[in-house]
Design brief:
The protein has 87 residues and is mainly alpha-helical. Helix content is 52%, strand content 5%. The chain has four helices and two strands; from the N terminus they run E-E-H-H-H-H.
Length: 87
């Protein structure tokens, strides 16, 4: 059985940035920030045009790819963020 390495072109983790959560390289925008917007009805186009215009569509799609591979982790972070936003 061959080992498959998980690598993402635009997604990084740094222990001292955003609590070590996955984020878009070169930004403080976490994957769960992007996924939260998408789950709340934003489209890739609206995110890159107005919500987070510093991101490219490729970066947003890679956030989605990361989400598919780490759904439990990201869902938990999105839920926490939504709870914090409602306080």
């Amino acid at each position: 059985m061959r080992e498959i390495s998980e690598s993402y072109r635009y997604i990084v983790r740094s222990p001292d940035v955003r609590g070590g959560n996955a984020r878009v390289e070169g930004t403080r925008i976490a994957v769960h920030d992007v996924i939260g917007l998408l789950l709340n009805g934003e489209s890739v186009e609206s995110i890159t045009a107005s919500r987070l215009p510093m991101l490219t569509k490729a970066q947003v799609y890679e956030c989605l790819a990361y989400y598919e591979d780490h759904r439990g982790e990201v869902d938990l972070l999105v839920a926490r963020q939504m709870t914090d936003d409602q306080r």
